[in-house]
Design a protein that fits this description.
The complex is a heterotrimer of chains A (311), B (454) and C (313). Chain A is built from 12 helices and 2 strands. Chain A has helices at 2-40, 47-68, 75-99, 107-129, 138-143, 159-182, 184-194, 196-201, 206-228, 238-253, 258-278, 286-297; strands at residues 145-150, 153-158. Chain A has a two-stranded antiparallel ribbon. In chain B, the strands form 3 sheets. Chain B has a 7-stranded mixed β-sheet. In chain B, strands 2-1-3-4-5 form a 5-stranded parallel β-sheet, with helices on both faces. The chains are: A mainly alpha (311), B alpha/beta (454), C mainly alpha (313).
Chain lengths: 311, 454, 313
């Protein structure tokens, strides 16, 4: 063991760096889904489409910015603008027109609504942005790279990947945790997550909470896509790829738990990075393996609460 | 029977007067033309109203990066061909179907095209799985099928078909050309890493590369075999590992958005400065990634498809095609456009050959299929010959990237155009066995590299 | 709905399928695939009765399809391959079921999804054996000792699919009416009550799960025998999603729902793809959206409502 560590210690360090930025990206994709699931009890399949649309919007806005001659640094706030835009434009109509109308039906129907939405958005996105890969890497190039020492060698990492992604993820995590615990609106969300009926009985307007949460979730999904857009070439089908990963995170995390999502993302991110270094063939199945193992030990997920049995 | 109807023994419709059957259909479902069943015993060899071509291509999903330009090329070329009077005075009409939903959908669509749309030919497909599934159907339904873009070498090595032909090369020459080029230009490399997409093409192409490399240059150290998920959006971990390992060569047959992402992320982290990349499919990404792909790396085009081909057979044809395509669709044509052009040119050549053999009469499906065997037809850059086993012999261009002010993206220099027959597995042999019989003498017979001329 | 009426409808449906397949040869393939999916959806319906949604039943479809593909060269007899594949799926269902029936709702759904995705990855990883995404071509098979080709072969699989659909439809109908089936509905409403009554909920769910896996296996074997080419895409999560989609489209109110849904789904898809090759997903999604918003009982519920209204009038 000591020998192995001596030989591979440096590699482990590199893998950890990769794993952290990886985890940050996964967290940003999954946290919105987890939040929405906690409050609305709908597994939003269209979450992946919102992610893709967020990414495409950010890239398009970024390219417009580059063409307009305005200062380059505006590319960063633009990522946030794109996310808010997508959340505000798509979130409320989906919640009000589709999910709310079917709330009295079985939960699986709501899930299927989001599945139908996913199919529609998938084609819509193709109509708007075409099939050629879209990317805008201005934010990445502005920040340049950082050389991380590796023995006698150095390994360049992009500043964006090493600091911006984890930074934004951390701010989101802390911000959300603060919001949910310390603000009235946040506490309402927590109350509805725990027990919608009881929350209603206490006078909480569950409908409004759901609308707010869904919009926030959509904006978070779009933010995940927007943050990825400087490094990822967006193509048709990227939404479908994203959604399975976020599913795995949500189930591993436990329902509606923001900290759970962070821990699950961290496990998956690190797991995948270590796999690439030491057992590449496992990389693809890591999210599922982690999920199965976690659920074997904790059937309610990492941070899930055991629901009281109602008789 | 002039036109053998495969469904005849059990197709009840064939025996009924057409009106009666149509009555049944209209009563059932009301979607008119979609329902008309099968080409029946009409006198097929008379000159038809139009030549209908079913074209399976990716219109959704990640591979639409190739599929949609392929369709655009088909639309443009068919428009142009029809403006010149079509084939033997008959105009062409394409019917496009989407490969996106997967094999069972494509197989169903194939049957619909053959039995309901009654198309004369089917171009199918981009996905190797779809080709493997459709080639036997071509024989079963006796409908001429051009495997217009798929790469797997298994099709004609594992079976023989009467109605399926390939109008381009396959994975073996595509990968072998890149390896020979690397061995010639950088003979001293000692270590290599592979980063391929985790699916059949990624695995297959690595298999071909490794087998040939072990034969031609044994002892190369393979320091990493990475197969990231198909559609992966983040290669940072793979890149870190490659930066740490410093292999002399990084081989990757990745394509589409995945390749764009891999190139950009590698460029951002200066991996291109540490290793020489060999990217046999980079031609299709070059315009999009632009200068992110630096000079001095080896790129290919799944054939001899390059708008700046050093010595095209008909320079005017290539120039016109490139300009027309750019004008209409706003991008340079990529290899899938060339493959589509080859399928269409082959169709024209085969009809003309068959008609000539028949003294000007319109050929039956069987006669047309016969014409495809041994057919020689022009491509946009050279000439392709369809071998006796149905496999096309297509030249391969491999070059090294260089930056130029003339284009906002890198171009190829030191281009080698391999002759198709010199690097294709001989008919009747399997690639896995043939690759083990290669000798370094092959390198001496390689054509000389041609530099980029502005 | 009365039992006899349902049976009558089913027989009429069989007749309609045969007629359409006879009149429009290319639809025979589509109809066979639809029935095969309908069988798998019947299993989804069973679990839906217990309030559980499996997002991974494509696992069993794909498993059986690969069993058929691998065994076809050794055992080239359709009538043996099919039961072997179905049994294999049922065994796998038992194995997976022992694990997943401990979970409910999202966890149940997601675990199923995870396992099917693991299987998907395995099919790709063991590339040397499975040829990865290129898939495996089915070796020629016989039907009751006869070597059938072309149309005759297509008919044989379609008739087999019809027979299995009828058989399993009746079986599931009986199962749902039995105490076991009633207990299944109990899991959905108030599971603890079941246990207070001494009914082991997990075992009830497990038996339903195994039955559903077996039916999905039959569906998978039929799909393999129809397309004659199997690929890992059969196990991808969207394939599982499609099964749930069909279950809702058809309506969970009757065992006829899954088949009605599958036929409607496949035909909509084929026609949508034929009319607008670029945007068939959008059409399919819109159809589903409209069904859920305006006919949450699915096609079956819609039909029944129409029927009831006419009766009342």
């Amino acid at each position: 063991m000591a020998d192995w560590l001596a030989q591979n210690g440096l590699l482990l360090g590199l893998a950890t760096l990769d794993g952290l930025s990886n985890a940050a990206a996964i967290f940003m994709v999954a946290v919105g889904l987890n939040l929405v699931f906690g409050v609305l009890r709908v597994l939003n399949v269209a979450h992946g489409s919102l992610y893709a649309i967020g990414g495409y919007t950010a890239a398009s806005l970024g390219l417009l910015l580059a063409a307009s001659g305005l200062p380059d640094w505006l590319a960063f706030p633009l990522l946030l603008v794109a996310a808010l835009l997508v959340g505000a434009v798509l979130g409320p109509p989906i919640e009000k027109l589709l999910l709310r109308r079917t709330r009295q039906h079985e939960p699986v129907l709501q899930l299927l609504i989001t599945f139908a939405l996913f199919m529609i958005l998938e084609d819509l996105q193709k109509l708007v942005w075409g099939v050629q890969p879209v990317v805008n890497d201005t934010p990445l190039r502005l920040l340049g790279t950082v050389d991380v020492p590796f023995g006698a060698d150095v390994i360049p990492f992009t500043t964006y990947q090493l600091f911006v992604l984890p930074g934004v993820a951390l701010v989101t995590l802390v911000g959300l945790a603060w919001f949910l615990r310390r603000t009235l609106a946040g506490r309402m969300i927590v109350a509805v997550t725990a027990d919608a009926e009881a929350a209603r009985a206490m006078g909480i307007d569950a409908g409004r909470v759901m609308l707010l949460t869904f919009t926030a979730g959509a904006a978070l999904a779009a933010l995940g896509g927007a943050l990825a857009s400087p490094t990822v070439s967006l193509v048709p089908g990227v939404g479908a790829q994203t959604i399975v990963l976020s599913f795995a995170v949500v189930a591993t995390a436990g329902l509606g738990q923001v900290e759970g999502a962070a821990l699950a993302a961290l496990l998956i991110g690190l797991g995948r990075a270590f796999a690439v270094y030491f057992e590449p063939e496992l990389e693809v199945v890591i999210p599922y393996l982690i999920m199965v193992v976690v659920l074997l030990v904790r059937p309610q997920g990492l941070f899930g609460v055991v629901e009281t049995r109602r008789i | 029977m002039p036109h053998p109807n495969p469904a005849a023994p059990l197709a009840p419709g064939a025996g009924l007067p057409p009106l009666g059957r149509r009555g049944v259909l209209q009563a059932g479902l009301a979607a008119g033309s979609l329902l008309l069943a099968g080409r029946t015993a009409q006198a097929q060899p008379s000159r038809p109203q139009e030549i209908k071509i079913g074209i399976a291509t990716y219109l959704s999903g990640p591979a639409s990066v190739f599929g949609v330009p392929g369709r655009q090329a088909a639309e443009m070329l068919i428009d142009q061909l029809n403006a010149e009077g079509g084939i033997g005075g008959v105009k062409l009409r394409p019917i496009f179907v989407d490969e996106g939903p997967g094999v069972d959908h494509v197989v169903g669509e194939f049957r619909r095209l053959a039995q309901s749309e009654d198309v004369d030919l089917i171009f199918s497909a981009i996905s190797s799985a779809d080709c493997l599934a459709c080639a036997p159907l071509a024989d079963e339904l006796k409908r001429l099928t051009i495997l217009w873009d798929c790469g797997t070498q298994r099709i004609f090595e594992e079976a023989r078909y009467d109605y399926a032909f390939r109008t381009q090369a396959n994975a073996t020459p595509e990968v072998l050309a890149a390896l020979l080029y690397l061995l010639k230009m950088k003979p001293d490399f000692r270590s290599l890493a592979v980063v391929n997409q985790d699916y059949a093409w990624g695995r297959d192409s690595w298999d071909i590369w490794r087998t040939a490399m072990n034969t031609l240059k044994p002892g190369v150290r393979v320091v990493a075999e990475l197969f990231p998920r198909f559609g992966a959006t983040d290669y940072s971990t793979e890149i870190t590992r490659l930066l740490a390992l410093r292999p002399d060569v990084v081989f990757s047959t990745t394509w589409g958005g995945d390749l764009d992402t891999l190139i950009r992320q590698s460029a951002d982290r200066r991996l291109f400065e540490r290793s020489t990349f060999v990217l046999p499919l980079a031609e299709s990404s070059m315009e999009r990634v632009g200068k992110a792909l630096p000079a001095g790396h080896i790129v290919g085009a799944r054939g001899d498809h390059w708008f700046l081909h050093p010595n095209p057979r008909d320079p005017e044809l290539l120039r016109r095609f490139t300009n027309d395509f750019r004008q209409r669709f706003g991008a340079y044509p990529i290899y899938s456009c060339h493959h589509m052009a080859q399928a269409i040119f082959a169709t024209k050549a085969a009809y003309e050959k068959a008609m000539q053999a028949k003294g000007g009469g319109w050929p039956t499906d069987a006669e047309l299929a016969q014409a495809f065997r041994g057919l020689e037809f022009p491509s946009l850059t050279s000439t392709v010959r369809i071998r006796e086993d149905g496999q096309g012999l297509e030249d391969q261009i491999i070059g090294t990237t260089m930056a130029t002010d003339a284009y906002p993206f890198p171009v190829m220099t030191d281009m080698v155009v391999f002759k198709g027959e010199s690097i294709t597995t001989p008919a009747g042999q399997k690639s896995a066995d043939w690759l083990k019989t290669l000798t370094p003498a092959m390198l001496d017979q390689m054509p000389q590299p041609i530099a980029y001329k502005p | 709905m009365k039992r006899h009426a349902e049976l009558l409808l089913a027989l009429l449906g069989v007749l309609a399928v045969v007629l359409v397949a006879w009149a429009v040869p290319w639809l025979r393939f589509v109809l066979t695939i639809a029935l095969a999916k309908g069988l798998a959806v019947l299993g989804i319906l069973l679990l839906l009765r217990a309030g559980q949604v499996s997002f991974g039943h494509a696992l069993f479809v794909a498993f059986a399809a690969y069993v058929v593909a691998f065994l076809a060269p050794l055992l080239p007899e359709t009538l043996l391959l099919l039961p072997v594949a179905a049994l294999g799926s049922a065994l796998l269902g038992l194995l997976v079921g022992l694990f997943v029936v401990r979970y409910r709702e999202i966890f149940f759904g997601m675990l199923n999804l995870a396992l099917s995705m693991v299987f998907y990855s395995v099919l790709e990883k063991f590339y040397a054996i499975t040829h990865g995404t290129d898939g495996i071509r089915l070796a020629p098979t016989r039907f009751a000792g006869m070597a059938l080709e072309g149309a005759a072969q297509g008919w044989s699989v379609l008739l087999l699919a019809l027979a299995l659909s009828l058989g399993f439809g009746v079986l599931v109908r009986l199962h749902l009416a039995s105490p076991m089936g009633q207990a299944l509905a109990g899991i959905k409403t108030r599971e603890p009550r079941l246990e207070f009554m001494g009914v082991p909920a997990r075992r009830v769910l497990l038996s339903a799960y195994v039955l559903s896996a077996c039916m999905a296996g039959c569906g998978g074997a039929l799909i393999a025998m129809t397309t004659r080419h199997v690929t890992p895409a059969l196990a991808y999560w969207t394939a599982s999603g499609e099964l749930v989609f069909i279950a809702i489209l058809g309506g969970a109110g009757s065992v006829l729902g899954p088949f009605l849904g599958a036929l409607a789904y496949e035909l909509t898809r084929v026609y949508a793809a034929a009319l607008v090759a670029d945007a068939w997903q959008m059409i399919l999604g819109t159809v589903l959206l409209l069904v859920i918003l305006f006919a949450p009982g699915g096609l079956w519920g819609m039909g029944r409502a129409l029927f009831a209204r006419r009766r009342a009038a």
